[in-house]
């Protein structure tokens, strides 16, 4: 049986650029009947397959990705690399995640003291939902060191909780094999966290594509097909033996023009990825464009994500990628044939902000930053009274600044002033 694992909600407070609590939701509003294929429906839980996050540079989009990554690291018992908000003296970061796992809805909240590297609080619970949409919470575990309050659904473990170390989650400091419910918690959170792939489009590991290309199976064929369709001039893409690679030694200074990809992998491994144009095979690393190399690197994540039901969290999806390809990738995840994969992505390309052809309103999110703080909100938060209807030209409204999350207009004034000052300086010299 296929296992359904998806993010439903992320909560963060005093993490990175977020001082006040933010709630980022993947819940679908089923009062909206538009684009029903964009919604995954499981046991009366309705979850969005994709969400795009907009906002200016340095507003906090990447911080949202960092929060998801921190949750993943914590649940896998790895160093979370959390950072409190710079404008507070509070060293305690608060994070929470609600997720779907095999048709069941769970939540995990934790408070982590970065300075002392300890968990002050953790809570794990299940949310049940009846046919009428009513929810009921079943508490599995709660540990509050500050209030000295403890609870466990397994009574046998209750006395142990105050005595164990706070450096890790309970399921990692207590022998889970001896306690049924603790073992279940560990299994649930590990399986969920392992399904998440965090991808930075400006630094994509090529290893996954290399590994898939080595195996002559159906997955490899789908990866090749994706890359070829993305680059219309390419005849083939393959992983070859070194004796098939021939470089002209007279022009042998060829090397990657920029470090657009993660270069930790062995150089010779990447050299063996060969693109063929008009019957001529060339090493992709040296001769393909930045965009094509990024496509080759991300293709394996997309194909495997759709095939195996993974959660892709992609920062700067549209970086060096043609807007039609970006649109096609999103459409693949929104498609009714996608029954188990999910994608969260940050983006600048307003062409994607299309509620008439692609998205439900709750699938478009914004990160807005001003002198008072950083705010995270959805297009669905705007009402018809505020000028946002199903027929509204969202792209035009965003461009005009009516939805926020745009670069400060003072930037334009500054540039105009700079240009004017240059003219003034030139006049003075005369």
Low-confidence stretches: 248-252, 256-260, 422-430
- Shape type: globular
**Portion of residues within helices:** 25-40%
- Taken together, the total number of domains comes to 2
- Give the spatial strand order of the biggest sheet: 2-1-6-7-8-9-10
Report the β-strand fraction as a percent range. Answer: 25-35%
The average pLDDT is: 88
Distance between the termini: 80 Å
Q: What is the CATH architecture assignment of the largest domain? A: 3-Layer(aba) Sandwich
Total count of strands: 20
The CATH top-level class label of the largest domain:
Alpha Beta
Q: What is the CATH topology descriptor of the largest domain?
A: Rossmann fold
Number of helices, counting only DSSP H or I runs of 4 residues or more: 11
């Amino acid at each position: 049986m296929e296992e359904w694992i998806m993010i439903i909600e992320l909560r963060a407070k005093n993490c990175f650029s977020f001082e006040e609590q933010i709630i980022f939701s993947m819940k679908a509003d089923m009062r909206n009947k538009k684009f029903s294929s964009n919604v995954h429906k499981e046991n009366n839980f309705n979850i969005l397959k994709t969400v795009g996050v907009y906002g200016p540079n340095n507003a906090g989009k990447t911080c949202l990705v960092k929060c998801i990554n921190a949750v993943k690291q914590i649940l896998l018992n790895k160093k979370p690399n959390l950072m409190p908000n710079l404008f507070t003296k509070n060293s305690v970061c608060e994070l929470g995640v609600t997720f779907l796992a095999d048709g069941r809805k769970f939540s995990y909240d934790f408070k982590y003291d970065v300075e002392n590297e300890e968990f002050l609080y953790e809570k794990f619970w299940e949310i049940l939902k009846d046919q009428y949409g009513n929810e009921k919470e079943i508490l599995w575990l709660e540990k509050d060191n500050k209030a000295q309050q403890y609870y466990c659904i397994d009574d046998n473990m209750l006395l142990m909780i105050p005595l164990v170390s706070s450096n890790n989650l309970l399921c990692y400091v207590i022998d889970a094999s001896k306690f049924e419910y603790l073992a279940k918690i560990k299994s649930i959170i590990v399986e969920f966290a392992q399904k998440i792939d965090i991808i930075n489009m400006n630094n994509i590991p090529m290893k996954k594509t290399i590994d898939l290309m080595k195996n002559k199976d159906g997955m490899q064929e789908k990866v090749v097909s994706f890359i070829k369709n993305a680059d219309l001039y390419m005849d083939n893409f393959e992983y070859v033996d070194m004796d098939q690679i021939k470089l002209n030694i007279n022009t042998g200074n060829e090397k990657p023009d920029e470090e657009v990809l993660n270069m930790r992998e062995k150089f010779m491994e990447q050299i063996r990825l060969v693109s063929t144009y008009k019957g001529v095979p060339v090493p992709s690393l040296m001769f393909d464009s930045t965009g094509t190399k990024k496509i080759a690197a991300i293709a394996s994540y997309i194909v495997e994500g759709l095939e195996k039901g993974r959660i892709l969290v992609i920062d700067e999806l549209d970086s060096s990628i043609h807007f039609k390809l970006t649109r096609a990738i999103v459409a693949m995840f929104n498609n009714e044939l996608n029954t188990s994969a999910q994608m969260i992505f940050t983006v600048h390309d307003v062409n994607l902000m299309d509620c008439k052809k692609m998205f439900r309103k709750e699938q478009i999110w914004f990160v807005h930053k001003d002198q008072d703080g950083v705010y995270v909100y959805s297009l669905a938060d705007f009402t018809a009274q505020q000028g946002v209807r199903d027929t509204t030209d969202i792209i035009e409204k965003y461009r005009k600044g009516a939805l926020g999350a745009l670069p400060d207009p003072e930037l334009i004034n500054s540039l105009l002033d700079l240009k004017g000052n240059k003219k003034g300086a030139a006049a003075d010299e005369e």
